[in-house]
Amino acid sequence: MNHGLRSTMLLFFSLAASSFAGAQAFPTATQPLQLSAFGAATGNYTGLAGGKNLGITAGVDLGFKPFYRFYPTAEVRGTYPVDGGHIDAQENILFGIKIARFYGRYHPYADFLFGRGKINYQNGGYPDPTGTLLYLDTVSNVFSYGGGLDLDLTDQIAFKVDAQFQQYATPVTTSGHIYSKPITVGLVYRFDFNHHIHYDSNGQVKGYRPPPEPRSAPTSPPAPESPTPDTPPAASSTPQPPTSDAPAPANNATPQKPSPDTPAPNSTTPQPQ
Predict the structure, then answer these.
(1) How far apart are CA 186 and CA 87, in angstroms?
(2) Confidence tier at 72 by pLDDT (50, 70, 90)
(3) Domains of the chain from N-terminus onward
(4) Residues 231, 220: Cα–Cα separation, whole Å
């Protein structure tokens, strides 16, 4: 399986180089491809006579633009057993497609993977159902169905929980198959080729706020009106009655006609000769 691991590493660096070149071609607002890698510990129930493995899993994801809020991703992953247990040790290299949805920091996904796997039988081999043959190892196709959750810790690092249901072909069982159940826990690292540009679940730039509306300059109070010289009133077209220069009688008294017996004031009466 060393050849398979070398192939995985070669594919990893090839994808990294191609994605970096693609991102440099689009340095502005969008990043058409999102490259990420993950490493994790894997506990595997092998499905053969209660066998258990403890291994490591590493993989590369190449994400594409969302389609109706679904995020398609091409994935390559490989698992190698560090502790093969006492029954069988399973290793594989798989590739396939993953579909994710984004709900804030939570990114649940489902995947379908296909590849090649190898089973190394412990304790000197494992017999076939008839007991006539003893198998030391077998190689077969592997079908893997599963899903998981990526939980964002930062813009570039996420916590991963993943579970798979894998089918191996083997001649040591009567059905000709075994079904393993690996559970993986680890971390995801997202390569950021658009520096400091990150996107939310709706594909919008995270943290972007439109600039505020420009404030209008304060208006000065209206200038006071300049005083205008007094103008004489316009002459009336209606004729006014003539006015008398004689003083008006005091207290609105009506003048009385003097009586004949009363001499007029300041007057002299001529005396007869």
Answers:
(1) 26
(2) very high
(3) 2-25+34-190 (2.40.160.20)
(4) 32
Separation of alpha carbons 64 and 187, rounded Å: 20
Average pLDDT of span 240-258: 55
Residue 252's SS3 state is helix
Which tokens hold the place of 68? 């109706």
Helix (H/G/I), strand (E/B), else coil: 18: helix
Both tokens of 113, joined, read 């993977």
DSSP 228: P
**Residue labelled with tokens 């899903």:** 147
Distance CA 64, CA 264 (A): 132
Helix extents (H) in the chain: 2-25
The per-residue pLDDT for 260 is 54
CA gap 185, 74 in Å, rounded: 20
3-state per-residue secondary structure call for 184-210: EEEEEEECCCCCCCCECCCCCECCCCC
Position 203 pLDDT exceeds 90 = no
Q: Give the residue with greater pLDDT, 52 vs 14.
A: 52
Helix (H, G, I), strand (E, B) or coil at 17: helix
- The structure tokens 């017999």 sit at 127
Helix (H, G, I), strand (E, B) or coil at 251: helix
Residue found by looking up tokens 């109706």 in the block: 68
Cβ 163 vs Cβ 145: under 8 Å: no
First-to-last C-alpha distance (Å) of the chain: 180
- Res 174 pLDDT > 90: yes
* pTM of the predicted model as reported, rounded to 2 decimal places: 0.62
Please tell me the total number of residues recorded for the chain in this structure: 273
